[in-house]
Recover the amino acids of this structure.
């Protein structure tokens, strides 16, 4: 009986990984010129930031863990391995988003304050989301636009609640963005 249970568990595990790999392949296949990939910053344990944080002082913020730094490097490596041309990399001004962008795409990051987190500023959510939609709708390439931002920003733009290091692939339109895929962390 134990061997049957182990066989079932192994089979389910294989099925899970096959589904995950197929889902990742579909997500990567949705990345093409003119699309935008909204990445939630890589793994930075905890939630929010300590009170009194400042944007230009990383010691006052929640930062990437060593696993998060590795995750960010893998994001960039995957783009290079798949030969996906990245036209620009925009980031919020938080250290964990800048570090994710810099580790994944060295030398390409440009700060875009409109993608700063509004986790503690819910009154800014609607205006910042509208401004982000307008900025994204102007993207025409060449290549893919990568935006490294925060869960609250991505959820407001797409309705998707991404995990750390997850990418949501969107196609900008005059009315906002259309989700066309996702890239698992």
């Amino acid at each position: 009986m134990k061997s049957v249970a182990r066989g079932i568990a192994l089979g389910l595990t294989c099925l899970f990984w096959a589904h995950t790999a197929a889902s990742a392949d579909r997500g990567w296949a949705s990345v093409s010129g003119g699309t935008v990939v909204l990445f939630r910053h890589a793994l930075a344990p905890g939630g929010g930031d300590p009170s009194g944080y400042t944007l230009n002082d990383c010691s006052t913020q929640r930062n990437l863990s060593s696993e998060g730094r590795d995750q960010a490097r893998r994001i960039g490596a995957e783009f290079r391995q798949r030969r996906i041309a990245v036209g620009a990399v925009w980031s919020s001004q938080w250290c964990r988003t800048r570090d994710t962008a810099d580790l994944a795409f060295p030398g390409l990051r440009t700060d875009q304050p409109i993608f700063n987190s509004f986790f503690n500023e819910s009154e800014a959510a609607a205006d910042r989301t509208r401004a982000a939609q307008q900025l994204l709708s102007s993207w025409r390439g060449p290549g893919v636009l990568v935006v490294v931002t925060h869960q609250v920003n991505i959820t407001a733009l797409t309705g998707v609640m991404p995990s750390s290091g997850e990418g949501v692939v969107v196609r900008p339109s005059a009315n906002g963005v259309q989700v066309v895929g996702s890239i698992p962390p």
